[in-house]
Amino acid sequence: MAEALAEPLALRIQQNVDLHHLNTFRVAARARYFTQITAPEHVPALCAWLREHPMPHLLIGQASNILFRQDYPGLIIDFSLKGVRVETQSAAQVDVAVNGGEIWHDFVCYCLREHWYGLENLSLIPGTVGAAPVQNIGAYGVELSRFVRYVDAVELSSGSARRFSAADCEFGYRSSIFKHALRDRYLITCVGLRLARQSALVLDYPALQEALREVPPDELTPQLLSDTVCAIRRSKLPDPRQLGNAGSFFWNPQITRARFAELRQDYPEIPGYPEDEYVKIPAAWLIERCGWKGYREGDVGVHQEHALVLVNHGKATGAALVALAERIQASVEQRFGIQLVPEVRIV
Hey, what CATH class is 3-79 in? Predict the structure, then answer.
């Protein structure tokens, strides 16, 4: 049972907290300490507490991209401060500030109700708004970075607030400065986004084109696009409330065009998507060709509908899921000479 320590400025620090229901893999793990940020005054209190109690710390939203392979020896920080406000608006666009604790998909739905457009392709992505810039979330031909104006964050070691411009964030494919150089150093409190008042649907992705091919152009709406994205995601990805998972476990690897041409000689059907001098290969295709789709051993497995999704069928441990991931990586590298890199953060 969790025990409360002294609470500076109403900040509640708990000990020995069960993380089973705080990660979408639903693996058993415990945190030495845990706190939830629900008010602005909790942020400076948190920084002060960490200065007094130096230790490892980990920021989570819904822990939708984290795999605990063991108990966490430090402080887990759940930033749950919510709020959305309009900063400026015109007939063409609206600038909004969104607190980091907002649930991402709930925010997308809110935007649709307010007739703020652009995020439809990012519907149903798990996690919070604060986690979204860290990963530079993207789906179906759209990335968050195209909408970001700024990211407000607080340096945990000093308590100093800083506003990062979009350029400062160093966004890349599923990455940002917060994922690399500044990893775990800053708590993202707010994200500034610029959204459109008029819809400009992005329908380039093949799965969307197939799903919407019989819809007359004048019936295509942002809401329909969002609903379609949700339907596609639900058809491919299991609901973590029913089957523990974190969505795509590995990044789609990028290889040189020359290497792709070599692979095509042995595997004419291999899919590839050119990006500058590289070609992106679907990791799911590689994993499936190695025979892992639908694999199960005890409570660890690979989803039967999507080879890129590792799942917990019940009481799998994080260590067992990591071991399965390593076996998949080894088999893909042995057969194709391609190294798969986990998209999920293993702690």
Answer: alpha beta
